[in-house]
Specification:
This protein is an alpha+beta fold and about 475 residues long. The protein folds into three domains: about 80-155 and about 305-390, ACT domain (Alpha-Beta Plaits, 2-Layer Sandwich), CATH 3.30.70.260; about 160-230, ACT-like. Chain A, domain 2 (Alpha-Beta Plaits); about 235-300 and about 395-465, ACT-like. Chain A, domain 2 (Alpha-Beta Plaits). It has helices at about 20, 55-75, 95-105, 130-140, 175-185, 205-215, 245-250, 260-270, 295, 325-335, 365-375, 405-420, 440-450, 475-480; strands at about 30-35, 50-55, 80-90, 110-115, 120-130, 145-150, 160-170, 190, 195-205, 220-225, 230, 315-320, 345-350, 355-365, 380-385, 395-405, 425, 430-440, 455-460, 465. It comes from Actinidia chinensis var. chinensis.
Amino acid sequence: MAAVSARLTPVQVLKQSPESATPKIGFPKTLGFPTTVPGLISKPKNSEATRLVVSANSVVDDSTSSLADSAPSTTRRKVRRHSISVFVGDESGMINRIAGVFARRGYNIESLAVGLNKDKALFTIVVSGTERVLKQVMEQLQKLVNVLKVEDISKEPQVERELMLIKINADPVYRAEVMWLVDIFRARIVDISENSLTIEVTGDPGKMVAVQRNLSKFGIKEIARTGKIALRREKMGESAPFWRYSAASYPDLEGSMPADISVGKGKRTLNGESNTSVRGDVYPVEPTDDFPLTQVLDAHWGVLDDEDTSGLRSHTLSMLVNDSPGVLNIVTGVFARRGYNIQSLAVGHAEVEGLSRITTVVPGTDESISKLVQQLYKLVDLHEVRDLTHLPFAERELMLIKIAVNAAARRDVLDIASIFRAKAVDVSDHTITLELTGDLHKMVALQRLLEPYGICEVARTGRVAMVRESGVDSRYLRGYSYPV
């Protein structure tokens, strides 16, 4: 049987073109097909194989371009915690409007501290998000009426503090260990009963977590926390924001100062006759010629007297709510719709995970506040609300205050601070920042004594309160009605 031979021509790889020499993804593929099929057709021996070059360049170009376009979207922007400072003119419903800006965008406010002056308020808000979206939120806040200044101070060196009241179970057997932990964390005991202790702690958020973790083994009954407040750490030299403000109070800032110059400058500052430029102040307020200077940084926060003949007084409410976006906006909306002006507000995590505690001070009569509490109980996200006004309770506030001083006046300021048990947390060549905790009287007294030296900045938390298990009411121990 004669054999029909079919000789296959060896496949030769075509030379790649410069465009396809270095493709991004894939490679050119050459497929060889013989022209003679064994046993069927005879072709010349030197016949060449047909070549089919399948190039993936077009597919590669399309895919790489789509990948390049989607690269920025796959690389998500970094989410970080931001501290936003908002300085506003105080009016009814302002807290609700500010909280609504965050609620409409799905942001959950981690902490909120509101410190009120006579007619203005400073909000310190902590929220997590990307820088681009937070910038848009700040632009929306700036559009609100009576919002004077919005600033993100997260990236700058700052003094940050929180205040926490924590009530724990403390049997006499473990009380020595509890006191040892209190001393380590530089905390203070504010109330003692037979089976419980109420502790006051101040510090940064990391310290708060450490204290809570170490005291959890004894059993935590209740936690009331303020939001975080922050002030910039003052720079050294003439580039500092408050250099011009301090230089106006102390013309010889770099030289030696006579003993009586601080007193003289203080008198001119209090009387409003000083030529201090308000441009050095972070608060964008109107010139001091239009209104008294005390309206900007006055130590009085408009608290009502208990002896008001109309029955109007400040009521302290403690609320336990769900820790979810929009809850603060819903709660403050109840106050805003009824025309209540919130004098103080502190929001922080509660003793149970997933819950937050809101402590607020609202002026009103007993009857009107009782109706307000009934309306609050109708909210789905609210678990508990208590009016602590007629109960013996421990209350605390936290204040950071920056004073304009030079080397000669610094000793006097530190002596005043030691009397009030205030701590110096930041010092520059022309300012000093103090941290103070206590009740309203203590805040008012210290601020009034420091006004002659020149107050640069004030950041305050709201009031946090907790019922005294011991039943001791300090209002009757003082011998006068509270507050004054």
